[in-house]
Every structure is written in C-alpha cells, then in structure tokens.
Amino acid sequence: MAELSLPELDPTSDRAVFRQIADHIREAIEQGTLAEGDKVPSEAQLMQHYGVARMTIRNALQVLQSEGLTVAEHGRGVFVRSHPPVRRLASDRFARRHRQEGKAAFIAETEGAGGKPSVDSIRITEEEAPADVATLLGLAEDARVIRRSRRYLINGQPVETAVSYIPAEIAMGTRIAEPDSGPGGIYARLEELGYRLDHFVEDIRSRMPLREEMRALRLAPGVPVFRLVRTAYTTDGKAVEVCDTVMSSDAYVLSYELPAR
Amino acid sequence: MAELSLPELDPTSDRAVFRQIADHIREAIEQGTLAEGDKVPSEAQLMQHYGVARMTIRNALQVLQSEGLTVAEHGRGVFVRSHPPVRRLASDRFARRHRQEGKAAFIAETEGAGGKPSVDSIRITEEEAPADVATLLGLAEDARVIRRSRRYLINGQPVETAVSYIPAEIAMGTRIAEPDSGPGGIYARLEELGYRLDHFVEDIRSRMPLREEMRALRLAPGVPVFRLVRTAYTTDGKAVEVCDTVMSSDAYVLSYELPAR
DNA sequence: TTGACGAACTCCTCTAGAGGAGTCATAAAG
DNA sequence: CTTTATGACTCCTCTAGAGGAGTTCGTCAA
C-alpha cells in the first residue's frame, strides 16, 4: 500500500462507498498506476486505508472482477488481469489456397504465428439435428447429422471449442465421420466428395459464458465469449456444414473484409 | 414461492451454499420454469426457503446478475432478463445500391425492420488523430481529422454509439464536417468527392462495457458489448474513414459472408 | 542440503444484524 | 373523482464479527 496512493472517500458524494472504492482502483488501472499483473492492495490494507468493513471492500473488488479488470487468486491476492496475446481471425482463413496446402485452417494459422496448435476432446457422433442446425442446413426436423466436437488449444491453452454438423447422408462412411479427417480438414474432404464450396456465412454473437464454457476455456470471471456460427454453402447454394464455435473474447479479434460495391 | 419449487441444499456437497442456490435458480431459468420477465423469489422468501442469511442469498443473486441472467429492480424485485429483439447486421449493408437510395445504412435498415430510427448527440470536432486511428488511416501522428460522434436509437432506445474519423484534408469544408451529412450519409459524400469506395475492413472485439457505455446504451449488468472498428478503403487502397462503434451485444447479431475461393 | 513444520498472510464463505430507499396498493382526505 | 398519506414489500448499503482454506516463506531438525 505504501507504493500505491489511493484517494480518500468523498463523504458528500451520494455514490455508494464500495463504488467509490472500485472507482479509485479502476482509475489506477486505467492510468497505468496499477499495471497488468500488479497486485491490488489486500482486503486488510484497503479496510485500513478507507476505514470500512471487510464486506464493503469485497463488494468493491467484486465490481472490478465482474468488469473483467481483476482476478482474485485464493491465498495470493487480487491482481490486475493481464491480457493474452490476441489472435486475429481474418475472413480469408478458409480460402481454398490454404486448404490445398494440406492443413486445416487452425493449424496453419497458429503455426504461422509461432504457436503450437493442438486439438483435443474430439468426439464424433451421429444424431438427430438440433432444430436450429436443421434449419440452417435446410434439412427436415428429424434428419440425422454427423456431429464433430473438439477443442482447440495453443501452447496447451484452450482457446476455442467447436461443434460441426454435417448431414449424415453426405458424411456417413467418409473420412468426415472419422476422428482424423485428414489433410486440409473436413472442407477438403467435402470438396473431394464433389461439393464445391462457394462461400461461408458467419453469424457472430457475444454473451457471458456458461459454466461449462468457463471451465472448458479456462476463462477468467468477467470475460465474455464470442459465439460464431458458420454455415458452408456450395456453388449450388446448398448448405453442407454448420460449425458452432465458442471462443474467449479477449483472445480474439475477428476481422472481415466486405465489398463496397 | 408457492409456484416455484426449488431443490434443497446438498449439505454433503463442497460447493458453496450461495453457488448451489445460484445453480438452482439458473437451472429453473434454463429449463423455462422461470421464463423471461418472471420474478425470481424475493430475498426474504429465499432466506426462508434455504434457511440462510440474507448475504448468502444476495451473493447467489449477484452471481446470476453478473452472468447476465437476471436484473434487479430496486423496490420491485429480481427478474429474469428479457432479451430485446435482435438486429442482424448483414455484411452487404454498405453496398452502393443502398447508398444510392439516399438513405444512410442505419436509417434504411431500421425502417425496413419496422422500427423508428433516430440519431442523437451528434458532435463534430476537428482534432489530432488518436494514434490507432492515424495508423489505420495511414496518416502522420500529428495529422488532423474530423471526428463525428453520434448515438443511434431505435424507438427511442439507444442501441449503438459511433465515432467516425475522416482525414481533415478530405473532409474540411465539405458537408462531411456538417452535422447533417446529407442523403446517403458520409460514404455518399466521399464518393461525390471522387473517392471511389472499394471495400471495408471490420475488426470485431467484445468486452464488458465501461461505465459511460453502460449509461449511454442503457445496458443491463452482465451484458457485454461489441466493439466494431470499420475502415473504408478506396479503389486506390487508400483508407478514407475509420468508424469506431460500440453496441450492445444482446441487441445484435453480426453476419458476414465470406468467399471460399 | 533437504524436508517438515508453522506462522503470517492471502482471499472465501457465512452469520446476524441495522437503516436506507424505491415501488405499489390501499385507505383517507380533499 | 383526485390527491395525499401510509404501510408493506422490495432491493441496497454497510457493520462487525467468525472460521475456513490456499500460499508463501522462514525456521529448525534431520
């Protein structure tokens, strides 16, 4: 606390005490007085400084945590959250030229950036298409699909979970229904099967993660996720795959190029 | 509470009591037992039901609120958050054909969907370009830009704030530097000035809102925002505008079409 | 040198209160 | 019929404690 000098409370303010305290710490973070990874003064120190009860301090720290500004580590302290390196997903990442080099988009991209990509928890099942997926694929309600779910990691850190749905009538008996879908990934396989890919549509949402997502992606509290649903269309206008991915929003920037014509 | 039957606590569990309570209510919401807009049992009722202290209940409700599942209304109760109608932003929304109809993208789109669009808080200044904007526009560090900031509303509800930066050497003295930029918006003006727009690049991030953003967009707690930075390029490859927008993530789905070639 | 122990520190969970302030329906007063 | 009060209900803020559990580091014995 000697290092960090926080202001005093303003007793004339009608802003709640715990909010004032949160404001002070937030300002210190925004101004860089408290840098990434720095330790925030302990509860005891803050109680002492402000002369308030422990719960008031904890309320203030709770605010900052749910804003994604800090993380608490049991037994160690509260720290200013540090941001992981950001991955940029460009809109040409599924271009055929990449696919033809024999690597799946994720692998090629990650190695290009100097990281060690890996894929995890691959599970393949055949099941009835969920309603929204059936709609996107233009299938009947009870149509069956191959479901490929997996998790992507970079240097051992999980960054993204993905679930692909491919109509069973297309994928059944092909390598698409195998855990290792082969060089170039399932898009390469689809093209080999004669489905000439024309374009993708990506729908992007953002929200707070579910509990399973926090666990699977090892997310800090206060970090939202992107949910990206990609549908692949052939030159005939037929949808052949839907991929539903969830990724940590602070590890990604999504980048798209769109025509002005 | 008569209507809603929550499970009892599991005393053998090592999961904290307030987390168990949050889990119960979360499940009720996910299963639809508690629907959008429904009132969650009051603190007093939950205290009674679980036989725990008020702070324990408040902790549980706090968890749900920061997950964006509920909103508390002072004096009224805690309610399951209802989601506003979602606006889909398609990647062709800046197509020239729309521009030529004489309406700015936002206005045309909103009217098409049956809403009443309006624009608010328009402020135009000339200033030095922020560092990141200067980089995107390919300008020198001390270059001057026209800064157009405004807020978009639908049926009186704010949905998006936006700040555009246009190099002063382009915009100075033109209608771009006026509050009313005229039919078709500033992209139409740029084309009239001879800057033929070729494509846009949009970078999308997501994070928890700052306090000002929560106020400006009237965001509920636990709702992240999209930050979308769009750069407009001419056929010469010159960047002529950067637009930095912040929008409520639960009012928007961003949709992009990308080529597979 | 190594390893076990313990003290001091950290955040986490929970209790049991108090007063404040916003909302709403109802009853009383105009 | 309108307006004003009142009371019951809601969530909000804050206090003052208690014990628990994880981390760190120095001490001391082997």
Task: Describe, in plain words, how this protein is organized in 3D.
- The structure is a homodimer of 261-residue chains.
- The first copy, chain A, folds into two domains: 17-80, Orthogonal Bundle (Arc Repressor Mutant, subunit A); 87-254, Chorismate lyase (3-Layer(aba) Sandwich).
- Chain A is 28% helix and 33% strand.
- The first copy, chain A, is built from nine helices and eleven strands.
- Chain A has helices at residues 17-30, 43-50, 54-66, 96-100, 105-112, 131-137, 168-171, 185-192, 211-216; strands spanning 39-40, 70-73, 77-80, 87-89, 117-128, 144-154, 157-167, 197-207, 225-234, 239-248, 252-259.
- Chain A has a six-stranded antiparallel sheet.
- In chain A, a hairpin with a 3-residue loop joins β2 and β3.
- The termini of chain A are far apart.
- Chains A and B meet through α3, β8, β9 and β11 of A and α3, β8, β9 and β11 of B.
- β11 of chain A pairs antiparallel with β8 of chain B, so a sheet runs across the interface.
- The structure holds a DNA duplex (30 and 30 nucleotides).
Helix and strand layout, with pairings?
The structure is a homodimer of 261-residue chains.
Chain A: H1 17-30, E1 39-40, H2 43-50, H3 54-66, E2 70-73, E3 77-80, E4 87-89, H4 96-100, H5 105-112, E5 117-128, H6 131-137, E6 144-154, E7 157-167, H7 168-171, H8 185-192, E8 197-207, H9 211-216, E9 225-234, E10 239-248, E11 252-259
Parallel strand pairs in A: 4-11
Antiparallel strand pairs in A: 1-3, 2-3, 5-6, 6-7, 7-10, 8-9, 9-10
Chain A binds a DNA duplex (30 and 30 nucleotides) through α3.
